[in-house]
């Protein structure tokens, strides 16, 4: 056993017989820092104080389609339950860099998937602790997996506080980091918990969220969050939220970018695995969106091997790309969207049609076989929320969910350079083209 290990281990003798060696907490955290983690703390396992609030958050429907979050409720209430015999958690943070320029992909997703990288390092830490003790250490590594509320463990281990944007914020690094935990059957001296809330009266994150996902300080409705919309939703993105996505193809960092703690203390990327991969590096949103729409499955698999972006799958990223071009695209993006009308995925075709309607150029409207309004007509119009009002060629482009569902809104077309009021376009149910749409209250014969 080396000098560090021997100084870190104390043999406890009780009642005349040797008991299991005891590890010094400072030596444990030193080992974790040696493996490349940026923040390390220790906490004892037990009842989880934030579990009731999390269960209420789920009951309120704020998790949306993320049904997997509901699993393991009993284990979430007591952190001793996921790993029988475990008594302590070594909680770690790994910085992924918050100084890089913003862009169409959230910073955490630009490089290699962090899950395997962090789990491997936590398992190595577990192995090294066994070497220090001279016997195996039972435990399990968690990184966004299993019934654990990692933020709760991290706060109790002294890593930071819960920000109003729901992120864990560290006073020396901000919030651009991943969390992980190693649950072990060791009695380790716990770190001091982080008790203070240092957000004060600041509401920059709440004010900056373009979709209003931060419904109150420390509370997020995930169904409104751009990260949820671009990653977790597997079907159609609600029309009312598409414009708020702006140029985000995958994920969003806005609520972190505006945080004063990140403005002051965010770091550069130091982990090579988290550097942007070639398919993403230096690309603006429109360029990336066009490239995604043109990708084959083979090209996608090669470009995003080992990337967290594979979670959205190719059809999800193409869907997102179409929305981005509908929001920030220009005339030169129309051909890519027209080509996407032939995509084998109905969802991609439907979002491409929406984007073409948003752009509203003659080429875009011609591709949809839709009569274009004249300069005397209106500048913005909407579809009715009536399925029969959709022209047949558009209903064939998209497998559209029931528009009568509560809260459903219809696509919106913004025509540039024109100023007028919004009007409803309604098509007769008998035959598309039998009569021109109602424009500003006027009707005309075909």
A few lines on this structure:
The protein has helices at about 5-10, 25-35, 50-60, 75, 115-135, 150-155, 205-210, 225-230, 240, 255, 260-265, 285-295, 295-305, 315-330, 335-340, 345-360, 360-365, 390-395; strands at about 10, 15, 15-20, 20-25, 40-45, 90-95, 140, 160, 170, 175-185, 215, 220, 380-385, 410-415, 420-425. With about 450 residues, it is α+β, with helices and mostly antiparallel strands. The N and C termini lie far apart (about 90 Å).
Structure in words:
The protein is of the alpha+beta class and 446 residues long. It folds into three domains: 3-184, no CATH class; 277-368, Alpha Horseshoe (Leucine-rich Repeat Variant), CATH 1.25.10; 370-446, no CATH class. The chain is 33% helix and 12% strand. It is built from 18 helices and 15 strands. A four-stranded antiparallel β-sheet has the order 5-6-10-7, with helices on both faces. The longest helix has 20 residues, at 114-133. Residues 1-7, 11-17 and 372-446 have low confidence and may be disordered.
Major pleated sheet: 4 strands, antiparallel
Side by side, the strands of the main sheet go 5-6-10-7
Radius of gyration: 26 Å
- As a percent range, the share of strand residues is 5-15%
Number of domains: 3
Please state the overall shape, judged from the principal axes of the Cα atoms: elongated
- Give start-end ranges of low-pLDDT stretches: 1-7, 11-17, 372-446
Contiguous helical run count: 18
Q: State the total count of DSSP E strands.
A: 15
> What is the percent of helical residues?
25-40%
The overall pLDDT average reads 83
Structural class determined from secondary elements: alpha+beta
Taking the alpha carbons of the first and last residues, their distance comes to 90 Å
């Amino acid at each position: 056993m080396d000098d560090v290990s021997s100084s870190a281990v104390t043999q406890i003798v009780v009642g005349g017989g040797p008991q299991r060696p005891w590890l010094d907490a400072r030596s444990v955290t030193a080992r974790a820092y040696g493996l490349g983690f940026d923040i390390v703390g220790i906490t004892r396992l037990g009842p989880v104080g934030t579990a009731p609030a999390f269960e209420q958050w789920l009951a309120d429907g704020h998790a949306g389609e993320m049904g997997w979050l509901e699993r393991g409720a009993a284990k979430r209430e007591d952190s001793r339950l996921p790993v029988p015999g475990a008594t302590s958690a070594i909680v770690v943070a790994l910085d992924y860099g918050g100084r890089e320029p913003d862009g169409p992909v959230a910073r955490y997703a630009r490089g290699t998937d962090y899950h395997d990288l962090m789990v491997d390092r936590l398992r190595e830490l577990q192995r090294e602790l066994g070497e220090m003790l001279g016997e195996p250490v039972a435990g399990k590594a968690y990184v966004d997996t299993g019934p654990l509320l990692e933020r709760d463990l991290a706060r109790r281990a002294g890593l930071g506080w819960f920000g109003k944007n729901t992120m864990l914020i560290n006073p020396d690094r901000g919030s651009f980091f991943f969390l992980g935990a190693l649950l072990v059957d060791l009695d380790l001296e716990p770190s001091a918990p982080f008790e203070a809330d240092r957000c004060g009266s600041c509401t920059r994150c709440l004010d900056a969220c373009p979709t209003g996902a931060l419904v109150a300080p420390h509370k997020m409705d995930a169904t409104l969050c751009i990260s949820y919309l671009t990653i977790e939703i597997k079907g159609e993105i609600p029309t009312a939220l598409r414009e708020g996505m702006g140029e985000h193809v995958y994920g969003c960092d806005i609520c972190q970018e505006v945080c004063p703690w990140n403005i002051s203390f965010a770091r550069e990327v130091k982990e090579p695995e988290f550097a942007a991969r070639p398919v993403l590096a230096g690309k603006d949103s429109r360029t990336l969106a066009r490239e995604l729409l043109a990708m084959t499955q083979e090209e996608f698999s090669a470009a995003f091997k080992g990337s967290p972006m594979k979670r959205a799958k190719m059809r999800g990223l193409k869907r997102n790309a179409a929305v981005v071009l509908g929001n920030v695209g220009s005339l030169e993006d129309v051909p890519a969207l027209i080509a996407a009308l032939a995509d084998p995925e109905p969802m991609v075709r439907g979002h491409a049609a929406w984007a073409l309607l948003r752009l509203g150029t003659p080429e875009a409207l011609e591709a949809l076989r839709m009569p274009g309004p004249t300069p005397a007509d209106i500048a913005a119009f909407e579809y009715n929320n009536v399925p029969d009002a959709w022209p047949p060629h558009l209903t064939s482009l998209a497998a559209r969910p029931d528009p009568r569902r509560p809260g459903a809104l219809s696509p919106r077309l913004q025509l540039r350079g024109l100023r007028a009021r919004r009007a409803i376009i309604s098509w007769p149910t008998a035959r598309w083209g039998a009569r021109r749409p109602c424009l500003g209250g006027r009707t005309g014969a075909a």
